[in-house]
Each structure stands twice: as C-alpha cells, then as structure tokens.
Amino acid sequence: MDVTSDAPHRPSLRDKKVEIAPSSRIRVWQPRIPPKTLLVDLLFAVALVCGAAFALAKYHSHMNYYDGLVLVCAVPALTTLGWRWKQARVLMVGIAALSLFAINLYGDVLGRADHAFFLKYLLSSQSAILWMSALFVLATLFYWIGMLARAPSAGAIASKLTWSAVLMGFVGMMVRWYESYLIGPDIGHIPISNLYEVFVLFNLITALFYLYYERHYNTHALGAFVLLVISAAVVFMMWYSISRDAQQIQPLVPALQSWWMKIHVPANFIGYGTFALSAMVAVAYLMKDKGILDDRLPALDVLEDVMYKAISVGFAFFTIATILGALWAAEAWGGYWSWDPKETWALIVWLNYAAWLHMRLIKGLRGRPAAWWALTGLVVTTFAFIGVNMFLSGLHSYGKL
C-alpha cells in the first residue's frame, strides 16, 4: 500500500551543502620569502664568511687583534645589508671579484701595472679611480638630461653609471691597499690616510647613500643635485692629485699608525657624505618651493623626509666618530681634547646639526627654514673638511693642503 504524507520533506545531511566561513578555512603555511630567495641569501652569507676566513688565513700576519675583530664584525653587518638591499649585494660581489682579479694579476710585483693590460687601463688603483671620476661626471650629465628632458631612460642610465662609478672606486681603494703592501710591509695601510684618499671615500659614501634613497623613493630627480657635489669633489681631487702629486702612496705619519684610523675615518666621512647629501636635497627643496622645476622634482614632503633622514644618519655616525677621535687623541697625543682647529670645527659641525635636529624634533622645524639651515650646514662642513686644512694648522697638519 502506497502511503503518502502531507508532511514537508526534511533533507538529510547528505542533501545539505555545508558552507565553511572564510575565517575557518584551513590555510597552508607558506614562507613570506620564496625558497629561492632564501637560498640565495644563505649562499651570500656563506660567501662572506668564507671570504673573511680566507682573508684571515692569508693576511693574518698583517693584522693585529683589532683588525681581525673589525673583519669578523663586518661579516654580519655586510650580510644584513646585502639581505635588505639586493643591489648592494651585487656591488659587493663585483668589488670582490675585480679586486681579487687585480691582485692575482699583480702577484708580488708592483711594476706589472705598467705592462699588464687590465691593470694599466682598468684595475690598477689609479686607473680604477680615474674611471670612477669619469663615470661620476657622466652620471651627473645624464641625471640633468633625464630631469630637464623628462627622459626616464636617461635617468636609468645615470643610475647605472653611478653604480659603475661606485664599483670602480671601491676596486681602486682595495687595489691601492694591496699596492701599499707591495711597496713595503712597513708602508702598507688602509687607503684613508690623506686628503686624496678621503676624497675618494667621500665620493663613494655620498653616492651610496644617494643610491639607497633613489631606490627607496623611486626617483632619479635628486641625482642631478647630489651628483653635483660629487662631481665638484672629483674636480678638486683631480686638481689636488695633479698639482701635489697626491695620488702617490706615502708612508703613514706616526700619529696615523693606529687601528683607530680604520674606524674613526669611515664613521667621520659617513657624516660628511650624508650632510652634503642633505644640503643638495635642500637646494632641490628651495627650488621646488619657488616653483622652479616644480613638475620635475619629488613632493616637498618627500624632499623634507630625505633631508631629515640624511642628517639623522650623519649625526649619529659623526657623534660616534667624534668619540672615537677623542679616544684616539688620548692614545696619540696624551689628551682627549686639545682644541686643535680640526677638533674645534668638528665640534662646530656637531653642534650645528644637533641644533637642527633639536629644532625639528622639539620645536617642529619644517619647510624653508629647515632647508636653508641644511644648506648653510654645507658651508660649515666644507670648512671643517677642507678649509681647516687650507688656512689653519694644528695637530692634524698631515692633512694640510
């Protein structure tokens, strides 16, 4: 007997479609960094460790305890930099490869620089530094063409030229370091001991910091301004080397025969380089504020941010350099502070930027006054860097023009 029911049909569980809320879905864990990138990062770190081990094994006779400590501490610092800034990693690999190639060409004979093709025209210290100088000037030209003609391709070429200049400059410094030991073990020293060598260092540090900000803010417009101060330094360096034969490697004066030089001078010139960068950004700010090249330059708040960050980094390193300099002075001259002209003007530079940062953070200094102050700071910094050497004498007379 077929019995039908008037009761509504109730679907079974099989008939029901179970909806899962998005928040309750099972997610498969995936690493934030692709495995290929992690592998490359790991290989880069291993390469740095192996490079440091090779340097310690091969050149330990030329190092003291502090040199070895600086080298060991540089490994994690450079590893972190390479992980966070991929272009810097490529730069480091290039510097290592070209420097080792040049050292292999030299062997133990300094005179091979006059005969070996790659040394004579490319990789000896003087050839590499000349290439650096030419590339910086060309980069300046292309940055201006790119900005004035609104040509992104010219800006991209300028950026590559700047990277190439930095590469050749660092190779020149590394090879110069090796050349100094070929002259004589008692002559060998890190090439940051005289005005010619620190000008090369200034150019490289300023350019590197600019390249970082260029990538961070995705703009080539500031290169036209920052590369101007680098090109001016190149012109001065060329004049100085021609008129004073300053490119020749000289023995260290007794006061510089200290491991303090290897950390004090680079920290000092990170300050000088970033202060110069901030001043040129201030020029761009003032021009845009006046409506000059308004549509070609980044926004005012971007320019102000670059100015602030550059001065902050520079002030931090300049403070460290000043403290290290006092410790070095106590060892070399028997006192932490002697009011030597160089020390006095370094203090003036420090007070200038300390006041700038204080006024920004506490009083809200912004806009045109901050830019004019940063630009004026370049005058103070330039006198501390060069003017003291030209017009004043003191304990730092080894840097006199």
Strand residue percentage: under 5%
Strand and helix order: HHHHHHHHHHHH
Q: Structural class from helices and strands?
A: mainly alpha
The end-to-end span amounts to 120 Å
> How many DSSP-defined strands?
0
| Form type | globular
Fold topology:
Blueprint: H1 35-59, H2 65-84, H3 86-106, H4 117-123, H5 125-148, H6 152-183, H7 195-217, H8 223-244, H9 261-289, H10 300-333, H11 341-363, H12 367-391
Helix pairs in contact: 1-2, 2-3, 3-6, 4-5, 5-6, 5-8, 6-7, 7-8, 7-9, 8-9, 9-10, 9-12, 10-11, 10-12, 11-12
What characteristics describe this protein?
single chain, about 400 residues, mainly alpha, 12 helices, disordered N terminus, Cyt_c_biogenesis_CcsA/CcmC
Structure description:
By secondary structure, the protein is mainly α. The protein has a domain at 123-399. The protein contains 12 helices and no strands. The chain has helices at residues 35-59, 65-84, 86-106, 117-123, 125-148, 152-183, 195-217, 223-244, 261-289, 300-333, 341-363, 367-391. Helix 1 runs antiparallel to helix 2 (65-84), helix 10 runs parallel beside helix 12 (367-391) and helix 11 (341-363) packs antiparallel against helix 12. The longest helix is centred in the C-terminal third of the chain and has 34 residues, at 300-333. The protein starts with 34 loop residues before the first helix and ends in a 10-residue tail after the last helix. The model is unreliable at 1-7 (pLDDT under 50).
